[in-house]
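Q: My labmate handed me this sequence with no annotations at all. I'd like to see what the chain might look like in three dimensions before we decide whether it's worth expressing. Could you predict it?
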Amino acid sequence: MSVSKYFKSDQKLLLRPMEQDDEVDRVETLTAYFVQSAGDRFDLRLPYDCKPGEEFPFTEDMLCELHSESMGLGIRLTGKFDSHLSTSRIRVVVNNDLKAFQRRLHPRRDCRIGIRFTRGHGTLRSFRTQWEKNATILQRTKDFSKLPKFTKTDVNISAGGLRFSLKPPIEIADLCMTLIELEPGTPPVCALAEIVWLTDLDERGQRSAGMQFINVLASDQKRIIDFVNKAPKYRSAEEDESS
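A: Here is what I predict for the chain of 243 residues:
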């Protein structure tokens, strides 16, 4: 396979591990950047600045799927994990099954919903383990009335991630363990997200952060899709205060 036509140095990809715990209906997506290739071997850089022991727990020959964009099209191919080259670089052996397709963007919704979050950096494995525990606990919980109160926050949300404003210090590849209350009285969505872009400071001393979900339950992702699709007229915090 000639990859030079489709992959360039530092090109962003989405890496989706395909071997997962059958008891957890997760959707898992990692950010990766193309470094180089030799035959069917891709060297990729992960941006998470992981401390030793905090790398993603790839296993030998773990199957994966790679997604990216090239020449206005989405591209997808499969492969398997080969080795860790360093704490931030991995090698993947890809299959000769590259496919191009028309990309479809996730519908998005501006809304004011309940958010709670914890932020960290370089601790991907620990955050992933904590997400698994949180997701399991929430699935088994019947009464959510004892959860701490959620802070109402202006958010833009889709099935793939969300955006809201945060106070510094904050940087690209920070991890956010988020609890999202889509509607009052409903079970919160627990999602592990990474910050993929940031705006400059605004007049309130905050930065708008675009986040991509790393881990979210497939059932919760469907709830987000349903929530986005039934969007009513949006009222911002400023409108609420002036009404």
